[in-house]
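Students often ask why we bother encoding 3D structure as a string. The short answer is that it lets us treat folding as translation between two languages. Here is a chain of 668 residues written in the first language.
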Amino acid sequence: MCGIVGGINLAGKAIPTYLISEMAFALRHRGPDDEGYLLSNTATGHYRVVGGQDTPQEVFFSGYLYSPRGSISDISENDRYNLALANRRLAIIDLSAAGHQPMCNEDGTIWVVHNGEIYNFRELRGELQSLGHRFVSDVDTEVIIHAYEEWGVGCLNKFNGMWAFCVWDSKKQKLFCSRDRFGIKPLYYYFDKEQFLFASEIKALLQASIPKRANERQIYDYLALGMVDHTEETFFEKIKQLRGGEYLELSIKTGRLSISRYWDIDLDKKFSGFTDEEYARIFYELLKDAVRLHLISDVPVGTCLSGGLDSSAIVCLVDKLMREEGMKIPGSKIQKTFSARYEDPRHDEGHFIEHVVRETQVEAHFIYPTGEGLLEEIEKLIYHQDEPFGSTSIYAQWSVFKLAKICGVKVTLDGQGGDELLAGYHGYFSSFFAELLRVGQWSQLFKELQSYAAMHSYSKTQGLSRAVLWLLPKKAESIFRFLRRFTREGLWLRRDFLRRFANNHPRLVAKGKSIFDNHLYTTLIRSNLPSLLRFEDRNSMAHSIESRVPFLDYRLVEFVFATPATQKIHNGVTKKILRDALKGILPEPIRTRMDKLAFSTPEDMWFRTTMKGFLMDLISSESFHSRPYFDVQQVKKLFEAHIEGKRNVSNTIWRIINLELWLRRFID
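And here it is in the second language, the structure alphabet:
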């Protein structure tokens, strides 16, 4: 796990060394163990490899072709290096100097900076060695180099892992950048036809002289629709993100930048003829192997435990691998878990967490996030996230990683992605019912509506009416959006701001025939999950922790999408295949629980008590009144209604104040 930055000037102008150094330093939290730089003149082919203040002494004397010779501070600004790559290393696998980056092939014609883990690197290493490739390290980064040499773009489909990397191919005179299938690891870039810059986080790009202008289209989507990370655009104009499952190529000769997709889910591929037991068995084997791969590490590993199905499944499978298969976890003989707890029973999942702790005998650690704590750390949280986020639940996750850091853990596993993959949110019921309606499966629809009403305290009419909305034609859907915009959002957003983006409703529609599959695909690939992965990456890396997500092993994802819808929802129960697969492994109170809290916090009470004065001062401030987005009087009425307990609109209030604080930190 690392932080990577780099850039190239296509006109041959020098990239200032101080700039690349400052960009790398902005990501020091992502990689405090080492730093390295490649500086090259693409016209002459001359290059230098240097280190910095955080480069260990043994790295300078390691003797590899990519070992630094001198320091970045020794480089004269008169040197004409128009390409630069830099890496901040968080050492996870092969802690020796051999893992230093940027790393190159045997003749120095191909260089790479890499953030993430290729979990199947040992298998690929063996395959590449049989094809004649020679290795000098035991790190996954070197596998990327030789896989690119051997297979070109095709190497991406060979990798099982999470990654963002940039390859400089001096022979072909091009940059080749890629992001893993789901975008677990980030990659942002800026391109003005002459200068191309990339980085793991936006804050590194902001070290350059890029105009800091807010992207008001993204602000609208955030305020009016609650959407973030759903497009390639960011909250900063001209700064974009490479999406999961994509690669980017920039030709030095032509100046052409192209982006292509190398992986997608085939929604038309479906299994049939298997029994429930067979589906469960295959799912179990795939998930267990994913967990096994995600435990590969040379530093201490722990697990995040919320008490929900997904995180509990990971903890219980790790326990099974340790007890029954003798798998060792670096740094401890006992699995360590980390959980957020609350005094407020509406948000506390301690009862479920304790079931898992007793079953597995883990070393459990707890932290209790508070409104006071959020106030103390809110500036850090907003800085590390780079962009606005949906709710204070992000602070709960921040606190869990803070606890793991205190306990000496450097790698964590958690259940992120399980809800989007297995239809864990109750909102999936409506698209499930809609699909049954579309294909005319009336008896099954009636049965599912009955089960849904009985188990989740909704009427059959409610379930059916929500399903019908999915079947409306586009014109009618647009009318509903229009009414929604000028009622709920219109109460606290300025009308002129709303009118400017009246047609700015991104249609996140997948290509499959099934309404239900399209819904799952959209939330996994385009809407919900990308934002959750961004939050997790920033929160974990702010504390120099590598966070891993076994549910997003692509083999598991492809298998689940090829199973029938009834393996996700059946008789009013979500995540059927997971519940079946882990029977006898998960404690029964966890396996059979039907409620869902997610990563919630008591923010409604925090806003009425601890944070009340802070919020009142913010919405009364001169800067807030000057924003072109809010109807300030309506915002005040909204806040007063919340304070008085007449309404619970804490989520809306958070979006309002989060945007204001973000504007102050990054734009003003």
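Translate back mentally: The first helix runs from residue 17 to 25. Keep this in mind for the problem set.
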